[in-house]
Design brief:
By secondary structure, this protein is of the alpha+beta class. The chain has helices at residues 2-46, 56-137, 143-175, 185-197, 217-233, 280-283, 293-303, and strands at residues 181-184, 203-205, 212-215, 241-247, 251-258, 307-311, 318-325. The chain is elongated and about 120 Å long.
Length: 344
Amino acid sequence: MFKSATLKLTIWYVIIVISISVLFSIVIYSIALSEVSARIANLQQSVPPLIPGDSSIFTLLRETQIHEAENSLIGALVITNLVIWLAGGFGSYYLARRTLRPIEEAHDAQSKFTSDASHELRTPLASMKIELEVALRDPGTTKGEMRELLESNLEEVNRLTKLSHTLLQLSKLDHDNITRENVELSVATRTIIERFNKTQPRIVLTNKRKIHVLANESNVEELLTILIDNALKYSPPTSKIEVTLIKQRQMSGFKVVNAGEGIPPETLPHIFNRFYRADASRTGSAKKGYGLGLSLAKKIVELHDGELTVSSAIDQDTTFQVMLPNIKRTPPKLPGIPIRKKHM
């Protein structure tokens, strides 16, 4: 589809280039030929004829020179136009590819996203359907077995609910503008850590400095939740998760550090892609997710004009660092100095 669109767009570009070059060639030809004719006519009038009363020689000479100038001009314009058309053809193809490349990439990303989402929805739905069909066909299903089946289906429904909620968040962030305000990052960080520590008390805030950033408070809390939850999933159950606040001149933020197996170098460039997950043999079924959390985190940071980076290696600590714009403080106004008028 995009190859055909590129070819059509190239043809339209070439037609435009040819039309402009032909139009300019006609204008240049008319102006140049008129200028040559006028100069030769002026020369004929300024030079007296060899035979008084006989101007046929000058007339023949003028026509010959005009004809030669006309041929030379046509040849030069033809060669110039051929060069322009050839260069324009290559340039048109390049511009057509460059124009359609973002659209093609967006189309491919949307197709992949739709395919992945369909796959993620189809798998649990198929599992629930099979379990229900087996239970309905078996007349000897006990109450305990039915309860176990309902609990399993409820778990799948909860996972599907979480998936749909995350997809809606991504869609909303793709099309909505966020409102930014003065957010005290230390307060938001402590709130999220206390929430996690109620069930998994192994998150430590290494410093408690006051930091103010220009951001959306709910988005910052969602960002902290995603990164801390990710650290809890991919670290040993007895290890500590360290959260450190960072303050710089232009940007401030935090970093989340966790121990664990680490992320392979070939995996690092892809972890923020939607529905991307590491090798299941490394992550384990208990850590199974949809691969949307880090993609959502990246989108939140991008909307805030911030930076999200990750550093890790096999059997080493993994560090996610988020930097957001600082609040621009206006300098305090100095008291005005009254100016006394001089009396003349």
